[in-house]
Design goal:
Beta-Lactamase; alpha+beta; 38% helix; 22% strand; 176 residues; 6 helices
């Protein structure tokens, strides 16, 4: 996929991918991969929550090869651990408060659900740069988490673009 330069181009790409005749999980994987490739990030993790079926889709740039080579992980039954959605946990606060968080998180020790995705994120030393709740009309559909190996937070234009793109992603998720 070529580099996408505006959020509108990415939204158009997402809408084209959404219109394709694919099963839902394959469609979402293609969309998540296109989102990652459009930004200066090395990893993207998408969790979907009830009323959707719970799933986790992770995409990482392969650090050992070209920047567009991706590793994709799909967990169709992730353990939704109480602590990561609890009111005390960062992700839980963001999802419940429906306010994106773009602070650069200092630790590279990531634990979402103690699975292979966590191990890969930690192996390539991903720092979380964005946690974006996927909520519409008080319904929580999930959360999108992006990170990278660099210590640079996302600039304001990327933050705004991610908010726009997450709204489009919500509309795709709602169709399941």
């Amino acid at each position: 996929m070529s580099q996408i330069t505006t959020s509108q181009e990415l939204i158009n790409t997402i809408n084209i991918l959404d219109a394709e005749n694919k099963v839902w999980v394959e469609k979402v994987i293609a969309i998540v991969e296109s989102i990652l490739l459009a930004y200066p990030a090395d990893a993207l993790w998408l969790f979907t929550l009830p009323p959707l079926s719970s799933s986790a889709i992770g995409v990482l740039r392969n650090p050992k090869s070209d920047n567009n080579t991706l590793v994709t992980l799909v967990d169709t039954q992730p353990p939704l651990l109480q602590y990561w959605l609890s009111d005390d946990g960062l992700i839980g606060k963001i999802v419940k408060g429906n306010i994106p968080n773009f602070a650069l998180h200092p630790s590279t020790k990531i634990v979402f659900d103690n699975d292979l995705g966590d191990a890969l994120f930690n192996y390539i030393k991903i720092r979380i740069k964005a946690i974006i709740p996927l909520t519409h009309n008080s319904t929580q559909y999930g959360v999108m988490i992006m990170g990278g190996q660099s210590n640079n937070p996302f600039d304001e234009s990327i933050q705004e673009s991610l908010k726009d793109v997450s709204s489009c992603l919500i509309s795709v998720l709602q169709k399941k």
